[in-house]
Amino acid sequence: MKRYIGTLAALALAGFMLTGCGDKTVEEGVSLLEEQDYKGAAELFEQAVEKDEEDAEAQRGLGIAKWELEDYEGALSAFESALENGGDKTAEIYNLMGNCCMKLDQAKQALNYYRLGLEEEDASDELKQEMRLNEIAAYEMSGDMESAKSKLKSYIQDYPDDEKAAKEAEFLETR
User: Fold this and answer.
1) Cα 33 from chain centroid?
2) Distance CA 171, CA 175 (A)
């Protein structure tokens, strides 16, 4: 889940560039994300949100910064606000929202976000694979071992060379 360092900044930058966001505070926040100054970025995005609570791009940037700062509750709240205010519904955002929920021991809510992410057409094959694994972990965390086993069986059929998944299947057989 922590593999997002750096790629999140790129995701944010691409999103901000595509939407033509003209707020200098948001642009500066994106620059700080790229520099991995997550605390500084969070402060700037919070300033942008104070100016305009409906600024979905500032909310998304805030969510990314808070994720990197391991403030999962704050990140989830910011991502939710971004979507409520018209932000792009992307597989990456849903995956991050699910990951936040997992960190907060909210497996059932995480499952919902992973499902939404898997439904998004913008999901790369790599991200779909990651979300499918995250979904299995969420089923395990929620105590639904039968669903975890079923999802893992399907996953292994699609990714037979994934050694970690094979070990996970062995583990789940003992449950």
Assistant:
1) 16
2) 7
Calpha distance 36→11 (Å, rounded): 13
CA nearest 133: which of 103, 95, 90? 95
Confidence band of 15 (pLDDT split at 50, 70, 90):
low
Give me the helices (H) in the chain, please. 7-19, 24-34, 38-51, 56-68, 72-84, 91-103, 107-119, 125-142, 145-158, 163-173
Please, are residues 29 and 61 in contact by the beta-carbon 8 Å criterion? yes
**String of b and e for 79-106 (b: at least 16 CB within 10 Å)?**
bbbbbebebbebbbbbbbbbbbbbbeeb
49 and 58 in contact (C-beta within 8 Å)? yes
Length of the chain, please? 175
* pLDDT tens by residue, 48-69: 999 999 999 999 999 999 999 9
Contacts of 34 (CB under 8 A, 6+ apart): 9, 10, 13
Q: Report which of 102, 106, 14, 101 is spatially closest to residue 60, judged by C-alpha positions.
A: 14
pLDDT of 165 over the 90 cut: no
Q: What distance separates the 2 farthest-apart alpha carbons in the chain? A: 55
Task: Give phi and psi for 57, each to the nearest 5.
Answer: -70, -40
